[in-house]
UniProtKB/TrEMBL annotation:
NCBIfam families with a match to the protein in the record: cytochro_ccmI (TIGR03142)
Protein name: Cytochrome c-type biogenesis protein CcmH
Superkingdom, natural source: Bacteria
Keywords: Cytochrome c-type biogenesis, Repeat, TPR repeat
Listed GO CC annotations: cell envelope; plasma membrane
GO biological-process terms attached to the record: cytochrome complex assembly
InterPro entries noted in UniProt: C-type_cytochrome_biogenesis (IPR051263), Cyt_c_biogenesis_CcmI (IPR017560), TPR-like_helical_dom_sf (IPR011990), TPR_CcmH_CycH (IPR056413)
Organism taxonomic ancestry: Bacteria, Pseudomonadati, Pseudomonadota, Alphaproteobacteria, Hyphomicrobiales
Pfam families, per the entry: TPR_CcmH_CycH
Length: 372
């Protein structure tokens, strides 16, 4: 009720702000006319004083009086006309009614079609009422608010970490994984997720920190596909291509036929050939299948390669980095991008330098030439 009283008062003030100037027009006209008349009367009095002092001749004084008289008559005529127009006529009545009708009509329409008795629904109450019907951003906000009050809730960090990663919030994802590991203990899924998030923060580069997390995941679960795939990718980034290929091939032979990782491994091997599969998927494979499709995994690989490419554009004096990039593009069968990487690498390292010559030899072994 108090809210509606405030709304009514504010509406009344707004209407008066528009209505009062309309009602004051007549007073304004009367005030202006009276002021002008007083000025002309002062001029007549000054004229009489000038005649008495002999400053102005009688003929000139009469002409001046006649001119001032004409102005006074004209002023009275104009004042009468403006006063008539400014009177409370039909136009002003219509205008006043229209000003007052706007809030009255608004209140009436809202009372008939609105929901004035519907209770308010703050964000916190909406999320607590039915979490299943809330969009992902509201669920994340709910989880963040909960963790702000309960930072020792390891389960909350464990749930929030993969959501952060999928939303591209890689730094927050790494922090959430670290908190979950600290509070709940290490698991293959958490360590592999931490390694993936740390690599994403570095633009796709499998750093020492990421490698350590992935190796801890393999120690807990030797067949963890995410850890195996990313560690092999790290070998490829270091230029250890034969070891990377062997690791991917071994992984392909171990994966079940319906594993979502098979497409990504085949893409890195540069072949879609069938490989022998062990019967029956593991629980981790089932979890991975629920979390990521082939297209999402391919997108992840593309993002990692793009991150390496961007890093080399910013810091081109990295011979091993150029080799890793050329190899990645050839594995992905993106030959034009591989040739472009070779050209940029030679421009940065120097075509006649020892690093440039080694890069050309490396690329030629993979069928890439700057002269193509």
């Amino acid at each position: 009720m108090f809210f509606w009283i405030i709304v009514a008062c504010l509406t009344l003030i707004a209407c008066l702000a528009v209505l009062l100037p309309v009602l004051r027009v007549r007073d304004s006209v009367a005030d202006d006319s009276a002021f002008d008349l007083e000025v002309y009367q002062d001029q007549l009095a000054e004229l009489d004083r000038d005649v008495a002092r002999g400053v102005i001749a009688g003929t000139e004084a009469e002409q001046a009086r006649a001119e001032i008289g004409r102005r006074i008559l004209k002023l009275k005529a104009e004042g009468s006309t403006l006063a008539a127009k400014a009177g409370f006529g039909a136009g002003r009545i219509v205008l006043s009614v229209a000003i007052l009708a706007v809030p009255l009509a608004s209140w009436g329409i809202y009372a008939a079609t609105g929901s004035p008795h519907l209770p308010s629904q703050p964000l916190h109450e909406r999320m607590a009422d039915n979490p299943q019907a809330n969009p992902i951003n509201e669920l994340v906000a709910r989880a963040e608010a909960h963790l702000a009050e309960n930072p020792q809730d390891g389960r909350g960090w464990d749930v929030l970490a993969p959501i952060y990663y999928r939303n591209g919030r890689f730094v927050e994802a790494a922090t959430a994984y670290r908190n979950a590991i600290r509070l709940l203990g290490a698991s293959a899924t958490r360590e592999a997720g931490l390694g993936e998030a740390v690599a994403a923060v570095g633009g796709g580069l499998i750093s020492e920190e990421a490698q350590a997390a992935l190796q801890r995941a393999l120690a807990l679960e030797p067949d963890n596909p995410k850890a195996r795939f990313l560690l092999a990718l790290g070998l490829a980034q270091e230029g250890r291509t034969e070891e990377a290929q062997a690791a991917w091939l071994a992984m392909a032979n171990d994966l079940p036929q319906d594993s979502p990782w098979r497409g990504a491994v085949a893409q890195m091997l540069g072949s879609k050939a069938e490989v022998q599969a062990t019967p029956g998927p593991s629980q981790d494979d089932v979890d991975a299948a629920e979390l990521m499709s082939d297209n999402e995994r391919a997108e992840m690989i593309g993002n990692m390669v793009a991150g390496l490419d961007q890093r080399l554009r910013e810091n081109p004096q990295d011979p091993e980095g150029w080799q890793r990039l050329i190899h990645a593009y050839t594995v992905l069968q993106r030959n034009e991008d591989a040739r472009d990487a070779l050209v940029r690498g030679l421009a940065a390292l120097g075509s006649d330098s020892a690093e440039g010559a080694e890069l050309k030899t490396f690329a030629a072994a993979r069928g890439v030439s700057a002269a193509d």
